[in-house]
């Protein structure tokens, strides 16, 4: 006997913060939309109250969509995350409750790879330190010893995670003729064929790479994957970049690595307890810090908003959303799966 399937009917959508106009307009053309417009993140009591009055939620990275929020969403059928990473959502619990979770992969890979390279270059060539020096009126003469950094041409790039964003970072490395080592669950034949990349274990990658860049999702398996024992294997001239998720790294260990000169520097777009930053990171000159802006270009943020909106619209029309995180939940609806 076939299990009873629910109708994917959506009437009311809650958006937990301002998103680009293109996504808002699309949603407004189909549903009754309530968009929270105050400072982010949406205050928890308000989120708990308002999630009870919608069938679909557009959530942002800073929202903790945990069991309590999901249970408060008595009519909730779909959570459309305005991001590719879904570590802010208790996906397992949503699935048990029969709630579909969608995300926005691929459209942000190039922009995030660009920001990754911006950090690699800024740290290697000490761009931010130079900017501070100039603004402080300390640029007095061309100096052969001033702000020497690291060359990149011919150096080894180590990618921890070699999916969509890791691959986009690898493509750009060709400009610096960098051999590539990568760590991933599965082999990546395209990377190996076109970029002569070599799959290695984590200790080998940390020992041999000159630039190490993280591109994993944050999961139970990757939480604190990077700790002192790996960081200690890095070359003292090496640069570490994280545009994935802060909690993949034990941040206190990274601070020690930077303070004690185990590595040359770091570029960080994400933090273990963001928006709180480890206070000692703020003291360090060999670190470049950005406020989780990996995908923050006009066109990419438009594409993410459009995709987040279309995921809800397609679902409500009984079609498969563009990107479903938990297909098991989708199977519970009268919807293409
Ligand atoms: P993706 O295409 O799914 O790639 C993820 C990679 O991580 C794959 O190579 C995957 O291996 C590997 N991986 C996953 N779990 C692993 C594990 N337990 N052990 C070893 N390797 C593992 O994801 P993406 O689109 O590149 O995005 C990656 C992450 O970047 C997102 O999850 C998000 O957290 C972050 N991100 C940040 C920003 C920002 O603004 N800073 C923007 C976008 C994304 P397999 O392919 O072998 O499974
Ligand atoms: C941003 O961090 C994303 O996961 O899209």
Description:
- With 337 residues, this protein is α/β, with parallel strands linked by helices.
- Helices cover 35% and strands 13% of the residues.
- The chain contains 14 helices and twelve strands.
- The strands form two sheets. A seven-stranded parallel beta sheet has the order 8-7-6-9-10-11-12, with helices on both faces.
- α11 (251-259) links the parallel β10 and β11.
- NADP nicotinamide-adenine-dinucleotide phosphate is lined by residues 84-85, 105, 108-109, 112, 161-166, 184-186, 215-219, 221-222, 243-245, 269-270, 292, 294-295.
Descriptive terms for the model:
337 residues; alpha/beta; Rossmann fold; 2 domains; 12 strands; globular; binds NADP nicotinamide-adenine-dinucleotide phosphate
Query: What structural class results from the helix and strand content?
Result: alpha/beta
The rounded distance between the terminal residues' Cα atoms is 19 Å
Mean pLDDT: 97
Strand content: 5-15%
Write out the strand line-up for the largest beta sheet, numbering strands in chain order: 8-7-6-9-10-11-12
Number of helices: 14
Number of domains: 2
Topology:
Blueprint: E1 12-15, H1 21-28, E2 32-35, H2 44-50, E3 56-59, H3 67-72, E4 78-81, H4 91-96, E5 100-102, H5 109-124, H6 127-135, E6 157-160, H7 164-173, E7 180-183, H8 189-195, E8 198-199, H9 202-208, E9 211-214, H10 228-231, E10 239-242, H11 251-259, E11 265-268, H12 279-283, E12 287-289, H13 298-316, H14 327-330
Parallel strand pairs: 1-2, 1-3, 3-4, 4-5, 6-7, 6-9, 7-8, 9-10, 10-11, 11-12
Helix pairs in contact: 1-13, 5-7
This protein binds NADP nicotinamide-adenine-dinucleotide phosphate and glyoxylic acid (GLV).
